[in-house]
Design a protein that fits this description.
Elements (H helix, E strand, L loop, with lengths): L1 H12 L1 H8 L2 H8 L11 E3 H5 L19 E3 L6 H5 L22 H7 L1
Parallel strand pairs: 1-2
Helix pairs in contact: 1-3, 2-3
C-alpha cells in the first residue's frame, strides 16, 4: 500500500494534468505501478465478454459459470437485474441492436441475484 500511496499523492497534487493524459485515475495507477499482481484469470470473468455465448447461440443457450470463477463482472449493460429479467436494454435510437442483444437467463444468476 505504501507504494500506491506515493502515486496517489502525486495525482492529488495535479489531478487535471493526469486526467488529461490518462482520463481515468485507475489507468494512471496501472501505468505507474510496474509490479502489479492480478488475480488468476479463471477467478474473475466478464459476463458479457467471457461467459455470454456469441450470437445467435445466446438466444437459447444461457451463459455458463465456470467452476473456478469466483467473481463475475457486469461491465456496462446488461446489469445483473437485466439478466434476471432476460432483458438487454438498448437505446431507442439503436433499436436495430435488439436483433443481437438478446439473452437467456442462466440459473446461476437467478440463484445469486434473486
Amino acid at each position: 500500500m505504501g507504494n500506491i500511496l506515493q502515486f496517489s499523492k502525486k495525482f492529488e497534487k495535479n489531478p487535471q494534468k493526469y486526467l488529461e493524459k490518462y482520463h481515468i485515475e485507475q489507468i494512471y495507477l496501472s501505468a505507474q505501478i510496474q509490479d502489479q499482481v492480478f488475480w488468476p484469470t479463471e477467478w474473475c470473468k466478464s459476463f458479457k465478454h467471457n461467459l455470454l455465448p456469441s450470437w445467435p447461440f445466446r438466444i437459447w443457450r444461457p451463459a455458463k459459470l465456470p467452476e473456478d470463477t469466483s467473481i463475475v463482472a457486469f461491465t456496462g449493460k446488461p446489469d445483473p437485474d437485466d439478466v434476471v429479467n432476460g432483458y438487454w436494454p438498448v437505446k431507442k435510437s439503436q433499436i436495430y441492436k435488439k436483433l443481437y442483444k438478446q439473452l437467456k437467463t442462466p440459473q446461476w444468476v437467478l440463484d445469486n441475484w434473486t
